[in-house]
Amino acid sequence: MEEILRQVPRSNLGLNRAQWALAKQVNMSLRDFFSRARWLANGVLGADKYQKYLAHHRATGCEHPPMTEREFWRDHTDRMEKNPGTRCC
Questions:
Q1: So where are the chain's domains?
Q2: CB of 41 within 8 A of CB of 63?
Q3: What pTM was estimated for this model as a whole?
Q4: What Pfam family does this protein match (any one) (predicted)?
């Protein structure tokens, strides 16, 4: 939406200054909402685990190169199958 607002002159939209400011604020609020929703969903679903692994790998200074994302998920799945823990099914 911001790109649309940026491309079209304010006068062509028929907005005064206050309406223009409100449109920009709503756009920022929606973007913030969807950004936070995506962050939450990735955390709940575990999609951010590989990024956390890479951050941990960099922080601990491991000598070996990090696993690829494919290797990481394969290893993660194997560990989950061997040690079910508190999994529901």
A1: 1-45, 48-89
A2: no
A3: 0.52
A4: Sel_put
Residues 6+ apart with CB under 8 A from 62: none
pLDDT at 71: 95
Helices 49-60 and 69-82 sit at what angle, rounded to 10 degrees?
100
d(CA 89, CA 83): 12
Token readout for 70 is 């494919």
Inter-residue contact 80 to 87 (CB < 8 Å): yes
With tokens 């940026």, the residue in question is 6
* Non-local CB neighbours of 31 within 8 Å, separated by 6+ positions: 2
pLDDT digits 0-9 by tens, 22-62? 777 777 787 888 888 888 887 787 788 999 999 999 999 88
